[in-house]
Amino acid sequence: MSDPLLRFRPEFPILERTNYLISNSLGAMPRGVYDAMKGYADTWATRGVRAWEERWWMLAAQVGEELGALMNAPKGSISVHQNVTTCQAVVASCLDFSGKRNKVVYSDMNFPSVMYFWEAQRPLGARVHTVKTDGIGVPTEDLLDAIDDQTLIVPISHVLFRSAYINDAAAIIEKAHKVGAYVVLDTYHSLGTMPLDVQKLNTDFATGGVLKWLCGGPGVAFLYVRPDLGKKLQPRLTGWHAHERPFNFEAAPIQYTDSPYRFMNGTLHIPSLEAARPGIAIITAAGVANIREKSKRQTARLVALADRNGWHINTPRDPERRGGTVSIDMPDSQAVSQELIRREILVDWRPQAGVRFSPHFYNKDEEIDTAIAAVEEILKERTVASR
Ligand SMILES: Cc1ncc(COP(=O)(O)O)c(C=O)c1O
Fold first, then answer.
1. Which of 192, 217, 231, 354 shows the smallest number of beta carbons within 10 Å?
2. If DSSP states are collapsed to H, E and C, what string results for 299-350?
3. Taking the complete model, does pTM exceed 0.70, yes or no?
4. Residue minimizing CA distance to atom 11 of ligand 1
5. pLDDT tens for each residue of 109-151
């Protein structure tokens, strides 16, 4: 079967040497990053301090636009940050936990760093309510029931990092709005691997980062703020980039500028922003709808191969509720993952998940078959060795 997305393979040097099935952790580096990094060094070397005015100051807005186009965000609604935890902190710094409406609702499958952050807001008055899950999916009804008129904010993952379960974001946002609460949708595992439309979902905030499915490397996360909210909110986590006249260096208090700089604070991570752009451009060219179609086909193939071997799967079976990863808990899964990596088949292992296989648009179907055949061989060898 012809696979038009494979035309992008030559853009990723590591695919020549490895079976790269770990885009849920770190997407492959596009060849274009070499030029982007050289361009960064050349600009600094030749333009010196003028680089700020000529390129660097606007780079944050530009990368925000490029990311925004992937999620149908209106112009100027995306600020860039170093990581998702910081994005959550910027959101929290816009909120007041001292009143009756101080409840924070999420499930126990949220990304740990996000939970650590919101838990740590208890001294400010936040009451965290954690909905229990079965370790794979989220009981949507329980989550919806927990969102009540004392709920201030619902910071949830769109796709769960451990099981790739796709939360019912539309239902959660609808319920939150009905009772007057905000939603922060963490799209780390959705943007780049499945279509996302922040306006259609009507989410208040969205966060995510570029290093996994967007092949953008470490150091760039993004925060979408709904434009009507963006005009009103006043982040306490702020700094000179958020000032209406940053280069006047006026004494405090701050006079907030408009989005997206309104939600930024201090000096930006320019090298990471430069490195992020080639990956975002390739994902845009490949088309997220095409990527999703292929991902569904390849994750179904992984599920079928795991079933054939009788291995336990910690990922939803329904393709409509499954993101880009299949977590397979075969016997001795941690040792199996180490041996796969030794054989240049790159995957990872997580407790309560097993081996996470995450094919992306640049993977061939044969690479999935090769990886599973390697697991079968490793398990056979281990059985023989233990006799
Ligand atoms: C859902 C989700 N959110 C956030 C993160 C990372 O957070 P941070 O950017 O703060 O390191 C990850 C990383 O795996 C994730 O899976």
1. 231
2. HHHHHHHHHHHCCEECCCCCHHHECCCEEEECCCHHHHHHHHHHCCEECEEE
3. yes
4. 83
5. 999 999 999 999 999 999 999 999 999 999 999 999 999 999 9
